[in-house]
Each structure stands twice: as structure tokens, then as C-alpha cells.
Amino acid sequence: MGSSRNLTLYVDLLSQPCRAVTIFCSGMIDDDDDDDEDARVNEIEADVQIVSLWKKETREPPFLAINPLGQVPAIDDGGFTLSESHTIMRYLAATRTVADHWYPEDLEKRACVDRVLDWQFGNLHRDVAQFLVHRELAPLLGRTKNPTLAAEAEDSLKQSLKTMETVWLKDSPFLAGGSQPSIADISSACQLQQLKVLDKEEPGALLAPYEKVKAWMVAVEDFTAPYFVDAHGVLEKVAKIFEDRRKSEAEAEAEVETAPKL
């Protein structure tokens, strides 16, 4: 199904749900490059508007008119506004011309995608978010890092990774059982990419026991290339900021330890 409506996408790529929608819509973005159509993920165009979370632009009246909840991502499709990343991708799959594997018309296959999306939000999304908050992000939120809660969240995250390895990826290369990715794969892969704000070696160490998860991550990135890497470019910058902060904290602690005792 096609649509002649003008689609506007409101995102901040610091947000995992925004990156998921952006990657799904990468083939939709009108970049004035008519010679690159064969590389598109989907044949739909969108006007992308960046709404800064850091600058609290999601709380300003112009954006609140789009989404009263003040959250990104959101879309305006010819006057019809919508929020929530999974709902947006479902809607675009239904109203635009996209490959069937993203959100199948077959109701049983579609239910399998929805099942993974529901599981992901209640498990993987929660586990990654809690782990990163208590391990790394707490100071940005005006809170103190909590090693105990971080350890608990890490254990829960490992259980989610085990579920991916032994259930969702047991008999197929992608989460919903298909031979090609669905919107559930994009959403989940973007969630795991959040771990890049940790020490460089740590994401690899967390994923090391899960061979199928690692192969799946590579498969999703390859299938959506170059958009997956492009959308996560901002995350690389954030990771560098945290790396520099960790170094500064370590140097400060070393100075305290070596300071002469009075």
C-alpha cells in the first residue's frame, strides 16, 4: 500500500526508539539523492526533524502539539499524529509500500513479530535501561550510581540474552522466526547497542557467551547497512564522553590515594 501524504518524522538519535524508527525509515528519508534508491530499506520518503532531548525541545509547545506526552519519536502523517516507536513502525508498514518481512500480512507471522516486540519492551528494554542507569547514567539524572542494583540488572540482562539465544534465535536467524528481519529485530538490536556507552571491552564480554545473539546483531546491521551504523553515530560520541569521564574519575582517585597523609 502506498500513500501520497507528507510524512514528518520527529526524532533525537540519542533515543533508542528513535534510532529504531529512523533505521526502519532510512529508505523513506528524502536526501535528494535519486541515484541511491537501490540501497534503500523502504521506498518511502519522510522529512526528518530533530527534536533535542538535551535542550528539552520535547517540552516546548510546538512539539507538544504533535505529541502531548512530550516524547520522541513521533510522526505527523498529513495531519495524523502518532507516537510510540513500535506503533509507528506498525503503522508505516501498513500504510506504505514496504517489504512484507518487516511486519507480515500473514496474521500468524505478524503475531510472532508482536510477541517479540511485547517481550522486548518488558524484558530486554527494561534490563538494558536499568543496567545502564545504575552503572553509568545515574549522575546525568541527578542520582548516585548503585553497584548493587547494577549487578541485579546485569543478571536480569543476561537472562534476557539467554532467552534470545535459546528461544527467539533457537531455530532461525531472526527473532520472529523468519529468514529476514522484522521491526522486532531493529528495535531489539538498537536496544543492545545502548551498551556501547560502557567500557569498550564490556559489551563484547557481556555478549561473549551468546553466539547466536552475536551473529544476529551482525546480520541486522548488514541487512540495514549503511543506515544502522549511521543512526548510531551519535552513540559513539556519547560513548567517548563517558570514556573521558571514567578516565578523569580514575585519575582523581589515583591522586587521592597518592596524596601525602597529614
Automatic annotation (TrEMBL):
Q: Which residues form the signal peptide?
A: none
- What residues does the GST N-terminal domain cover? 5-100
Instruction: Give all residue intervals belonging to the GST C-terminal domain.
Output: 106-241
- Which Pfam families does this entry report, sorted A to Z? GST_C_2, GST_N
Question: Which SUPFAM superfamilies would you find in this protein's record?
Answer: GST C-terminal domain-like, Thioredoxin-like
Please name the PROSITE patterns in this protein's record.
GST_CTER, GST_NTER
The protein's matches in Gene3D superfamilies, at most eight in alphabetical order, are given as: 1.20.1050.10, Glutaredoxin (3.40.30.10)
Which InterPro entries would you find in this protein's record?
A: Glutathione-S-Trfase_C-like, Glutathione-S-Trfase_C_sf, Glutathione_S-Trfase, Glutathione_S-Trfase_N, GSTT1/2/3, Thioredoxin-like_sf
Q: Could you tell me what this protein is called?
A: Glutathione S-transferase
**Biological source species:** Sphagnum jensenii
